[in-house]
Amino acid sequence: MRYPLLAATLAALLAAPAAAQIHGALSDARVLPLNGRMGGVYLQVDEESTTLQGQLRQSFHPNLDFGFQGGLSRITSGTTRTSVRLGGDFRGQLATQAADFPFTLSLGGAIGMESADDRTVLAIGPQVVLSRALGGAERWIAYTGAALLFSRYDAGAGLEVDTSFPIRLGIEYVPNPDVRILLEGQVGVSDEIRKEPALTLGILLPF
């Protein structure tokens, strides 16, 4: 096997204690080409909130790109309030789908914050995304991802620390090189802060 280190890294992440992009993978595992750029707009919903956020990604180095995210979330649990989301991440592409390896694999890390009147959540951790193009035309790309997040939750009455393991499953539809449409689901494992499954619909615009 040409990628023993990749397999070992992936296995270690998936076998880590239950505990990215903080709010989702938000794209498949393909890293942008050098000097490539991409914008994204996402609508994310769960049982307690609705969020509209954007993302800007750019690559300054081969096989490495960076993303910056920001948005507003309307939280409806208890008192209705608005929170602000900010985040950043990087990804390095470790493998590309080919005849001798059936997946594209990226590994990186993310940091993010969500703040409202009565709470602030800061999370950081590594993330991995694995994707596979379906069919020769690569119109459909399925992906899965996971992150190991260490979160600090300040609710005013006290400070909590949480370790979680969000799992992401998604698919992208690529009607043409200038537009990508994404549908992604996220479930938090052992997550006391983000307990509800989330569903994200996004439009990605390379430019």
Provide a quick synopsis of the model.
With 207 residues, the chain is mostly beta strands.
Descriptive account of the structure:
This protein has 207 residues and is mainly beta. It has one helix and eleven strands. Strands 1, 2, 3, 4, 5, 6, 7, 8, 9, 10 and 11 form an eleven-stranded antiparallel beta sheet that branches. A hairpin with a 5-residue loop joins β6 (120-134) and β7 (140-147). The N and C termini lie far apart (36 Å). 36% of the residues are buried. The model is unreliable at 1-20 (pLDDT under 50).
Q: Assign the structural class, choosing from mainly alpha, mainly beta, alpha/beta, alpha+beta, or little secondary structure.
A: mainly beta
Query: The biggest beta sheet, please?
Result: 11 strands, antiparallel
Low-pLDDT sequence parts: 1-20
Q: How many strands?
A: 11
Architecture blueprint of SSEs:
Blueprint lengths: L3 H11 L22 E9 L3 E13 L2 E12 L5 E15 L8 E12 L4 E15 L5 E8 L1 E6 L4 E18 L2 E11 L8 E9 L1
Antiparallel strand pairs: 1-2, 1-11, 2-3, 3-4, 4-5, 5-6, 6-7, 6-8, 7-9, 8-9, 9-10, 10-11
Task: Fill in the keyword field for this structure.
single chain; 207 residues; mainly beta; 11-stranded antiparallel β-sheet; 62% strand; globular; disordered N terminus
